[in-house]
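Data availability excerpt. The first of two example chains:
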Amino acid sequence: MRRYNAANERLKRCYEQYLREAKGQDDKSIDKVRAALVKFEESTKFKPFRAFRIDQARQFKDALSRAKTTKGKPLSLTTTDATLRLVKGFFHWLAGQQGFKKVLSYADVEYFNNNRKDARAAHAQRPVHFPSKQAAYHAFQAMVDRTELERRDKAMFAFVMITGARVAAVASLRLKHINLVDGLVHQDGREVQTKGGKTITTWFFPMHPQYLVCFTNWVTFLRNDKMFGQEDALFPRPERRLVNGKFAFDTLSRRNYANGAKVNEVFRGAFEQVQMHPYGAHSARKTLGQELSDRNLPLATQKAWSQNLGHERFTTTVSNYLPVSTQQQGELIKGLDQGKIPHN
């Protein structure tokens, strides 16, 4: 059973309320803060926050450097840096609270800073792995669609490839959010689990036409054959029923999945069955980013493509979803000296 300090718990609840109501953070983000603060408390043997000394920050860094993952490996630089920043954020808030201004200064909080070398390494851009559009279509073609659940999975894969929707959003969509006439999905932030509760209207991307055929057939099947209504799930979880004295999950319910885990499972499984790298569903957004780059579109169309991914700023798409590998970097720079761009 984990130890705890009652006074610390009260302060943490106040901070969580501040993050939720003043900073607008969601439960997932707050859970990360909770976990980081527990790690700090473990390093101090749950001493009260009021008794903070700067040597505790040093001890915490040492504890993180020695910590292991569940697989027995050292914590990554990214995890260590993120943990330090979360704990620092808490103590920065605490330094401004009544009763702490004399025992904790903002200068003391700076001792939670990571060293520059590790911080730089933690935020360094790494090679981005994502499927080519040819690889994705190959995996899609190999997916079987004999049963209702298999048809659902294949339609789910197709939908991700023509929308780039995030897994949580895909799992929470209902039929009312789909407009086949205009070719779009309306991700209503009040009802769909979008990032930051943002409302996003996404027109289907012009990827391989069979994706749209598959998805359209699925929606038609739900509406006409299964008699699903507007409030029913787009990609429903299976219905549990009793068959010969045993529970079976071989037909559709009308309920959504609680999270996007199933979407990732389906996406990875499609690639694994053709002996390819098990790409996650989020990697499809990078595939769509690469398609944007390959098409050499006018600037206004590039901006529309970016908005279709749910980005308010085109720079977000360029930074996160238009990867340039080291090899491509070299090819592009060498191409400058081959008459493609005139010298001054």
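And the second chain:
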Amino acid sequence: MTRITKPALDVVSIRSDFPILEQEVHGKPLVYLDNAATSQKPRPVIDAISRFYANTNANVHRGVHTLSVRSTELYEGAREKSRAFVNAAEAAEIVFVRGTTEAINLVANSFGAARVRAGDEVVISAMEHHSNIVPWQMLCQRSGAKLRVIPIDRHGEIKLDEYRKLLNERTRIVAVSHVSNSLGTVNPVDEIISLAHERGVPVLIDGAQAVPHFRVDVRALDADFYAFSGHKMFGPTGAGVLYARKSLLESLPPYQGGGDMIASVTFEKTTYNVLPHRFEAGTPDIAAVVGLGAAIDYVHALGYDAIESYENELVAYAVDALSRVPGVTLVGTPTHRVGVVSFTVEGVHPHDAGMILDHEGIAIRAGHHCTQPVMDFFEVPATNRASFAFYNTRAEVDRLVAALAKVREVFGS
């Protein structure tokens, strides 16, 4: 039998879909390696947003006129695309939010109000983004619960044995990242979820750094909550998704009050709308949700098998190339890594290195990456972070390596 395989990515053609990549910065062709902060947007996404405003713009769910009906169809069509994207059981399990941060805050406030009391415990990991730390700290301060932290090792990987010890009868929820935004570590979230479920504890997964790089199946993971942002996966800012198991959503109080999340309102009593609308108060960023739907279509057309194969090879090339640069030290050496390589340059503050790289046309991130506890653990004030997408190339890695030689030359390293 002849096996039919999908062709590898045509990166030259893909790059032509991203108009921003065609520009020069400081007279040099742009090398964009800050995808973990936000990804660039292909023309199909830009065009979908433009078409919406040019031809369809109207509020959703509230109108009977033609434009409102069209707008609602596009908005709810994006919900169905999002459902299929993560393999949720039904569209009612997909709540549109502004991004991962709002999704986590929704759960921390709604689930927290319903389920977390004084003496309870919330478990997170030491590698979390601030958006998966601060909302839980705030919940613990309000409720009298305690925040427990899973330690990591020098490779930048979660210590699963220590995680097992943290789980107990007081644990109310576990919240961990699927992929570390500052280290690139792919966490064993299937095992993390399974261990929590043995004790009847629900789990929230921050998937912001996962969905741009590989396929996510929330039912295969058995996730209770899964959050991601559109802008990190080639969609616009202002739109993201919270997947939540329907049985959990039905038991939780609304996060915000306002229009569209109600069934009826009197001064004596308000009754709430059906799922998922009761968690979507007010007018949403409709155009951004339409753009998110277009981004999902774009990623599907490329295919995750091709994306993973290409990106894994590219990141391995970057890790090898950067590890050979004199004075460069990689921060975190996880066994399973996607998308991100963090490093320091001996004798050079990351911000200074980032500015020199910018003058070479290379955009990376310099700072603590909203993971200050990770920086504290590795005893560095900040790192340089190169983060990759399927439109990046080996030639761009080579330009980064060459520019780092210039950084060391400028600072006499």
